Amino acid sequence: xxxxxxxxxxxxxxxRLVRAFTLLCGxxxxxxxxxxxxxxxxxxxxxxxRNLFAAPIRGVPEIVxxxxxxxxxxxxxxTLHAGRFTRAEMLPDWLESRRPFAGRVFRAAFDLTxxxxxxxxxxxxxxxxxxxxxxxxxxxxxxxxxxIVWPFKLLVVIGVAATAVEFAVRFLSNAIAGAEAWRxxxxxxTASPRGWGWLAALFxxxxxxxxMAGAELANVQIGALSILCMLxxxxxxxxxxxxxxxxxxxxxxxxxxxxxxxxxxxxxxASEFLRNYFFGVVPLFVLMGLLVSESDIGKETFxxxxxxxxxxxxxxGIATVAANAIFAAITGSSIASAAVFTRxxxxxxxxHGYTPRFSVGVVAGSSVLGMLIPPSLLLIVYxxxxxxxxxxxxxxxxxxxxILAVAFALLILAMANWRPHWIGDLSHETxxxxxxxxxxxxxxxxxxFLLVALVIGGIYGGILTPTEAGAAGAAGALVIGLARRRxxxxxxxxxxxxxxxxxxxxxxLILAANVYARMLALSGLPQQTGxxxxxxxxxxxxxxxxxxxxxxxxGMILDSISxxxxxxxxxxxxxxxxxxxxxxxxxVTVIAVEIGLLxxxxxxxxxxxxxxLGDERIxxxxxxxxxxxxxxxxxxxxxxxxxVPEISLIFA
Length: 652
Known about the structure:
Blueprint: H1 4-53, H2 60-81, H3 90-98, H4 100-135, E1 138-141, E2 145-148, H5 150-186, H6 196-214, H7 219-236, H8 240-256, H9 260-273, H10 281-294, H11 297-308, H12 315-331, H13 334-351, H14 356-366, H15 377-386, H16 390-418, H17 438-460, H18 466-483, H19 489-523, H20 525-536, H21 539-554, H22 560-578, H23 582-595, H24 604-613, H25 620-643
Helix pairs in contact: 1-2, 1-18, 1-19, 2-5, 2-19, 3-4, 4-5, 4-9, 7-8, 7-19, 8-9, 8-19, 9-19, 10-18, 10-19, 11-12, 11-17, 12-13, 12-14, 12-16, 12-17, 13-14, 13-24, 14-24, 14-25, 15-22, 15-23, 16-23, 16-25, 17-18, 19-22, 20-22, 21-22, 21-23, 22-23, 23-25, 24-25
């Protein structure tokens, strides 16, 4: 045992190292953040050069593809540090409030696992960097445009190594906090249950994993057990991407009987999978949506819709739906829509006699339009996983998105006329007068329609690829924000940082899902599932019903992107066996998944409304109850699309 002075000195040195490491990760994050901006300007410059001067910039697709690698790995560790790795927090939060020691043990165990997984990835990607360095490997077209690639491979090594260290730091922090919780539980004056039951459950789970690893199992059985283990790990609070990578690695290891193939799979996915030009749509569309949100376009859209619909009973509610539909066409995010219209529409409705429950419910319900009406992040993710054209998916979603918006409006109109007490006192709603001329309203909406025409029109007209449309849309949103004087350097930097965190969290999930999907394909489980469903006699209709029910149930505990990345590797091969259309299937999937945004206990949109509103008088339960009719309307539209699939294929 050393002296207290030596222990304090050691702790101080460790603290300085941790702070230095955190500063380094912050600097890497800043570089990755600025890189996103640089990609936007590069693509826009290429669009202008190609269309105005017939002189495209050479090598843009290759530069953007490698840039995505740099953007993700420069910001990966900082995204973890900021707590932005996607996870289900219900059980960990409950444990930490009731059983602090057990909660910290769970978090420490998951962080230690993360450190181990990323250490394996680091060792796997190092040879790729070493070879690129030794051989002066280049990318591009020889004689036309080339550049050396070892700096990008070095960024992969640095990024995964820094993430492994960040997991290790989090492990130490949770281990220390767990020890303090243990000591607190041991003191009589602060005695509390230590959570032996949860520790026993964790021990039993680890024993089962150990026994499973040593058992003689068929590949299909390994795949099926991996799904069970995944649900357990995710519900227990492990980051979803980490769970997918871990189970993909362990599953391949068990099927091949050694770790070599599993390590190569992880390394190959980490170093090569994200090097794709089309992944550029993620940061660019996210950037566009956040810039639009900061420009107060949502508020002005709502004001215009409110004036246009003031003569209708329930007009403010319908105006919220209309404004959400327009806002969705330039953001692609339900979360952004919920945050904006909670601040804009909810106080306005409540001041005009609407009940708090309906006011928050219509905001939460109509915000899901942001993930269906293009551009949509969920459709982008689906396009990557299902290997479908993002542009075709965007076009296919237009009519279903408008149908869903009309369904919401008709629902509000019906409630206002036949069940007005559900909405509130509407006696004075239609008496409101406005003095601004119609031309003023049109001018306020002009920037929105120009952005929509630029993005969707550019894709539909074949002028822009989805990635180029994202860059052009982001640049247009930036110009609008600056012209309106709603953006300053502080806000712009906040938008860029948030763009980076969202981008990394999404692309890391996609990367991890790719590893897991490779394991499932190796197991043969998707094919066996299709054959089993075919042998039961349920047919295609039965498969679709089971699929929708599964999505809604998972929506109660997981976020939308995670659900799609987990379920689609199983569902798409079955769809292929039945000869189903993948574009139509994508639209149905997005709507069904979005129902989960409104259902307890997770219901992310409802939580966003609650946190944004900041009014203790309005409970989370009221928000869920207010959003319930809109979830039912979404289910009805889903059934309509299943019965009449041509609706999704009119323009596709």
